[in-house]
Amino acid sequence: MDTIFAQATAVGRAGVSVVRVSGPRAHAVCADMVGPLPEPRNSSLRMVRGTDGGYIDQALVLCFESPNSFTGEDIVELHLHGSIAIVRRVLDELGTHGETRLAHPGEFTRRALENGRIDLVQVEGLADLIEAETEAQRKQALRVLSGALGSKVEGWRRDLIRAAALLEATIDFADEDVPVDVSDEVRDLLVRVSDELTVEIEGTGAAERIRSGFEVAIVGAPNVGKSTLLNRLAGREAAITSSIAGTTRDVIEVRMDLGGLPVTLLDTAGIRESADEIEALGVQLALRRAAQADLRVFLLDQGEAPPIPIAAGDIVLRAKADLSKMSYPSVSGITGAGLDELLGEIEAVLSELASGAGLATHERHAAAMKLALHGLKSSFNLLEFGPDQYDVVAAELRLGIHALEALVGRIDAENLLDEIFVSFCLGK
Q1: Are 60 and 84 in contact (CB under 8 A)?
Q2: For the CA atoms of 301, 305, 306, 312, what is the dihedral angle to 10 degrees?
Q3: Which end of the chain has the least Cβ crowding within 10 Å, N or C?
Q4: How many percent of the chain have pLDDT more than 70?
Q5: pLDDT at 164 (0 to 100)
Q6: Do 191 and 288 lie in a common domain?
């Protein structure tokens, strides 16, 4: 394979910039530039030289030896002073050596996958960790990156292979003096794996919301103060406010970190019947986004009925506490009255939703587990027909095993890789 290199830190001026080199010639190429390399997993200060013999920079050099590195290959990292000119010159010099080239986006991570250092779920966890904006996202991504889901999948796979092997042994040795009633052990294995798969599938929705963000829609009639409330919560003028009813025609979104959870607040158009075609479209959009939101905050005038049905867990507020002087659940976007209580209640509701999160964080994970569960249910039903159906039961189990292997990237992963790695930077 080619020896690849790239800047592993963000592009631009910085205190320190790291250039990573990985592949069969990584050590030899870097030794040409810095002299004798430090022992693996040790670092040493070296002068970096160009092909003309002139000094480029003084760098901290760190070496890793195959297979004990992130990619599973020989790796050298050059920790340089974070000058744009220095990094550019070092990258240029690396490109002059034979069998070296600039890495593609995510190629270091892809090599780690191909060399068995991480599985496909961990690749996705690494991408999520890089993108994490809140504490909850960081913790969740780190759990996935640690291999927790991959370990669980491996346990399920091992149990299903055991079940299939028991059935196939019964088929192969049906005419010999071996135990033929394996149904109880197979049934126990199927029940245990099915129960664990069901729990993990149910937790996918909450885990995916932590990854992508919860949506909270502010719902109410026109001119009730929704945009003023949103602006106060956002701490900026995110939405236009006016005494003219129907000012908001589109959905205004504000992203915020609430108790470590990623939350998008939605300011929707005031819900009412309207002859104005544009406002009517805004109302339809408001209704649709409110229905899709994880939580709705209803802002109502005193004595006003909600414009749409209130679901369990939704929050109902009274508007314009600055005029009524009433305590929470009355709020005011003008004075900020009741907003601390409101944020606390939103956080409590979303934290409860987040508590059900499992290890599977992507729709792809859920789809693979559902496919595996379908195979297990078919196997369980066929098992009741006795040894005559054991060959069909074993075939259904193999389909379930196949789905789990695809989940962690053991098989059928090639069509996913380009899509996944395109979001990575060059140095990852």
Answers
A1: no
A2: 110
A3: N
A4: 88
A5: 87
A6: no
400 three-class SS: helix
For the chain, what percent of residues have pLDDT higher than 90? Answer: 49
Assess whether 239 and 137 both reside in one domain. no
Sheet containing strand 252-258, strands side by side: 252-258, 261-267, 214-219, 295-300, 315-318
Look at residue 419 and tell me if it is in a domain: no
Q: Are residues 336 and 374 in the same domain?
A: no
Q: Are residues 336 and 225 in the same domain?
A: yes
Q: How many whole angstroms separate alpha carbon 327 and alpha carbon 318? A: 9
* Sequence-distant (≥ 6) Cβ neighbours of residue 276 within 8 angstroms: 246
Domain ranges, residue 134:
127-203+361-409
pLDDT tens, residue by residue, 373-414: 999 999 988 888 887 888 888 888 999 999 999 898 876 555
> Are 348 and 366 in a shared domain?
no
pTM: 0.79
Closest CA to 109 of 251, 246, 8: 8
Residue 329 sits in the same domain as residue 258: yes
* Residue 393: closest CA among 373, 411, 377, 407: 377
Tokens for 165?
Answer: 């092997």
pLDDT mean over 83-94: 95
